[in-house]
Amino acid sequence: MTLAKVHISKMTGKLDGFLAISTNTATNEYCIKQHEKGKQTGENICGDCYSHTMLRTYRKNMQPALQRNSDLLSSRPLEPQEVPRINAAMFRFNAHGELINMQHLENLIKIVSDNPWCVFTLWTKRVDIVNRWLRDNEKPDNMILIYSNPKKGHIMSKPPRGFDKTFNNVQEDEFTDRQNCTGQQCKDCRLCYTIGNMVDTIVEKVKKY
To answer: In the chain, where are the structural domains located?
Structure first.
C-alpha cells in the first residue's frame, strides 16, 4: 500500500495561528444538502456557509488538498505511519467540511489519541455519527466536541449527549449580551479550545460572505 499524507492547513483570519485538518465542503453530500436547504428557508446557518463561498471563489485552489483529505479519511483506517504528529497545544478539526461517515470520525479520533499533549476541537452537526461511535467508545480526554447548531437565531444552551459545548449563530442585533464569539481571534479567546473552562454555550453573530 502506498502511504498517503493527511493535509494540514495553516489558518488565517479569525483562526490565525491555528492548524487544522479539514475536508472538501463542496463535495460533501451532507453539506451540499444543508447549504441548499439553508438558502431556501433562510433558517439554516449552512445557507450562509463561508466554506462554500471560499472554495468556489478566492480559495478555489484549496479544493484539491481538501479533497485528498476527504478521500483518505473517509475511505479506510489510517496506517500508523500516516497518522500526523501534531506539535501544537490546540488544534482544529473541520475548519472546512463536515464529518463524512464513521470512518472519517474514527480516523480523527486516532489522530487525537496518538497526540495526547494536544487539545483537539471538532465542530460537527452530525450527531448521528457521533452517537453511534459513543455507544461503544469513550471520547479521549484531550478532545472537545462542539455541536454546531444549524438553526439561526436560536441559542441551544444544553449540548447533545456526549458533546461538550454548542456553537450558535444569531443576527448582529440579537442576543447581544450573550455574543461571546464576536470581534476577536480564536488564539486570544480560546473558549472553544480549553477543557474545563465552564463555558459550554458559544454565540457568534452571523457573518456575510
So the answer is: 17-205
